């Protein structure tokens, strides 16, 4: 292989309504349960990969900052899977911009590895189908498997240790009256990664076994609610699912939580929205920020209420987002 290989992709984050929290096989990145998410238009990563003989080693620049050895190693391991498929040992420069706070529970790892998987596929001219790319993205971060698609997306847990059986697929286009509002209470990176936190939960939380059972039932019910476009049902199931996930962490030993005082305040604000007759439900991930599921048509009224207690700059409205797509090359 003598020519240079380069491609640039944009992939959007996704927020799970039925959460993925725990792996049954850490090496193969296989989840304990299936999960279901909504891809978001407002938050995304743009990633370029350039494989070339000029590079003596892999490089990774995120938001114009060269990244630590550890971060570069994570990227190298991911690139290795694509290099293997192409039978090449060319090193690469990865340049990425997050249009989402990094490691703050807003799913930067999801858009990141979906964008990188698509860029590698494009650059190396592998022509992998979306399903295969979802599997490849999963190796970077589990939730990234879902960012290969737009709208509502289901990630199937698959069977046993069969890596090929666990991938995401579109569930519903979400081309109806639905939106998500991110209420940013803290943009700082989280003190512990979702990867460490979910493993600690599996190993020490007596509630974990029950969690897996609850997910199976929540998933069945939310799928029906999505098909019926019943946003009250969707919101109730998603809100309860998120709180059950956070309860597994409170019951871990030692216990921990991603809740901050402002997160609790934000959740209470959503309950108040409901008391005021609005349709709004919350979910929360591995970070202090709160996301609100609501009809798009009610966004102005919800914003008006929230703006009384929160800085309008920290209220970010998103419609459902698309699948990844190619964008023009950055200057290297
Ligand atoms: P988040 O809540 O943002 O998904 P995670 O801890 O799950 O937090 O993932 C954050 C990690 O994902 C970062 O520490 C970094 O290793 C990786 N990451 C984030 N953005 C990018 C990117 N654009 N390209 C490659 N890796 C990224
Ligand atoms: C709470 O996908 O970031 O956001 O697979 O270890 O990279 P790794 O974890 P990650 O975990 C996401 C956890 C979550 C729930 C979800 O997105 O389903």
Automatic annotation (TrEMBL):
Recorded GO CC terms: cytosol
UniProt cross-references to Pfam families, sorted A to Z: MDD_C (PF18376), MVD-like_N (PF22700)
Biological process (GO), any one: isopentenyl diphosphate biosynthetic process, mevalonate pathway
Record flagged with keyword Flavoprotein: no
Superkingdom of the source species: Bacteria
Enzyme class: lyase
A GO term for molecular function: ATP binding
InterPro entries hit by this protein: GHMP_kinase_C_sf, Mev_decarb, Mev_diP_decarb, MVD-like_N, Mvd1_C, Ribosomal_Su5_D2-typ_SF, Ribsml_uS5_D2-typ_fold_subgr
Boundaries of every Diphosphomevalonate decarboxylase-like N-terminal domain copy: 11-166
Enzyme Commission identifier(s): 4.1.1.33
Family classification: Belongs to the diphosphomevalonate decarboxylase family.
NCBIfam families named among the record's database cross-references: mevDPdecarb (TIGR01240)
UniProt name for this protein: diphosphomevalonate decarboxylase
Organism the protein comes from: Facklamia miroungae
């Amino acid at each position: 292989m003598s020519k240079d290989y380069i491609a640039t992709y944009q992939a959007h984050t996704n927020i799970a309504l039925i959460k993925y929290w725990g792996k049954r096989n850490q090496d193969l990145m296989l989840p304990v349960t299936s999960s279901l998410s909504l891809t978001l238009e407002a938050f995304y990563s743009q990633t370029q990969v350039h494989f070339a003989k000029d590079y003596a080693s892999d490089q990774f620049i995120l938001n114009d900052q060269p990244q630590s050895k550890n971060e570069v190693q994570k990227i190298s391991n991911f690139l290795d899977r694509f290099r293997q498929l192409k039978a090449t040992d060319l090193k690469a420069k990865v340049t990425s911009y997050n249009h989402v706070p990094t490691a703050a529970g807003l799913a930067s790892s999801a858009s990141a590895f979906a964008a990188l998987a698509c860029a590698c596929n494009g650059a190396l001219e592998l022509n992998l189908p979306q399903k295969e790319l979802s599997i490849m993205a999963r190796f970077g971060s589990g939730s990234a498997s879902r960012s290969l698609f737009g709208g509502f997306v289901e990630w199937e847990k698959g069977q046993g240790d069969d890596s090929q059986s666990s991938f995401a697929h579109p569930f519903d286009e979400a081309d109806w009256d639905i939106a998500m509002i991110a209420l940013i209470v803290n943009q700082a990176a989280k003190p512990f990664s979702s990867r460490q936190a979910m493993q600690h939960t599996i190993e020490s939380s007596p509630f974990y076994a029950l969690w897996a059972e609850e997910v199976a039932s929540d998933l069945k019910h939310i799928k029906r609610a999505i098909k019926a476009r019943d946003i009250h049902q969707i919101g109730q199931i998603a809100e309860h699912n998120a709180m059950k996930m956070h309860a597994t962490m409170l019951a871990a030993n030692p216990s921990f939580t991603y809740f901050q005082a402002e997160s609790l305040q934000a959740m209470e604000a959503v309950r108040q929205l409901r008391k005021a007759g609005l349709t709004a439900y919350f979910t929360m991930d591995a970070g202090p920020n709160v996301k609100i599921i609501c009809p798009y048509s009610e966004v102005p009224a919800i914003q008006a209420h929230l703006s009384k207690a929160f800085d309008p700059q920290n209220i970010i409205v998103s419609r459902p987002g698309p699948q990844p797509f190619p964008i023009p090359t950055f200057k290297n």
